[in-house]
């Protein structure tokens, strides 16, 4: 087995190190750009790598529907298909089935649903999810789970969590079926339990018994708010394995990442930097900037003077604002590159701060800069 995690330094609950995979190292804390349908929207894979990304996320639900996992497998696997030779994590499809599919029906077997694309009927089970992720050639495979809705009662949350734990065991059994893929790659379990401490602890205990390569925390960033999310992390992280990767799924905003790293999270993914780039929002060291705003139309300065992305090196706020307001494709391309660079710079800054045991100083400066607000108009 080529998968393992090395923790190089700690600072409070935060850690920095590397996750070793058959496709190379992932520096932690790590942010994974989301390549839902085998592409990070508006970006070439090589440009994504230039931002500092070590790993991408692909999506089982979307890829099983189009172009199909079997087709990708026949074309050499997801890495070759999308020209990304670094690690890829694939999510199980559970969240998308719950949020996107039509006429879904959850049973012990899995989820029967109709495609949101063409209405075709499918069944996604733990076994089928493992098969799809194996066909894709994923380096980190996610167990199939039910993403518990929010809000939910304690009884609803418990029933959902217990179903996910039964599916976790079936995912583990299906993953470890003697295939060469399982010998070379990793499987993560997903902690559920909503906002209830005893259910989160029960879920972690069940997943520890199964002995996954890493654990993810699911069911957050679904509308509960940052305070509640941090509260759940505060009572969940102490019972998580210390020698394995900890992945917070679907998170988040820059201050979410900082707060979660302080609490011991190693991995993140979120569509926010790329989606915001397509809607004219830029992340900067002094907060979020709306590039559609008229105040930028005569501004010759870059979006963020400290940023080294090609958008900030070569183009003005005035030009990028013009592109966005004109609906030109280059606008979302440049803004997405900038946002992903900002996110990777943020992760690199936290890695360095943890290695020097100066994370608290980094966090203080991070919040100070954001409180300043965007630079004044020229």
Explain what the structure shows.
The protein has 378 residues and is α/β, with parallel strands linked by helices. The chain folds into two domains: 4-269, Queuine tRNA-ribosyltransferase-like (TIM Barrel); 277-372, no CATH class. It contains 16 helices and 16 strands. An eight-stranded parallel sheet has the order 4-14-13-12-11-10-6-5. A three-stranded antiparallel sheet has the order 1-2-3. A hairpin with a 2-residue loop joins strand 2 (14-21) and strand 3 (24-28).
Set out the fold topology:
Elements: E1 4-11, E2 14-21, E3 24-28, E4 30-33, H1 45-50, E5 56-59, H2 60-65, H3 69-74, H4 78-82, E6 88-91, H5 94-100, E7 102-106, E8 111-114, E9 121-124, H6 126-136, E10 140-142, H7 154-175, H8 180-184, E11 186-191, H9 197-210, E12 214-217, H10 226-236, E13 246-248, H11 254-262, E14 267-270, H12 272-278, E15 281-284, E16 287-290, H13 310-314, H14 317-326, H15 330-355, H16 359-372
Parallel strand pairs: 4-14, 5-6, 6-10, 10-11, 11-12, 12-13, 13-14
Antiparallel strand pairs: 1-2, 2-3, 7-8, 8-9, 15-16
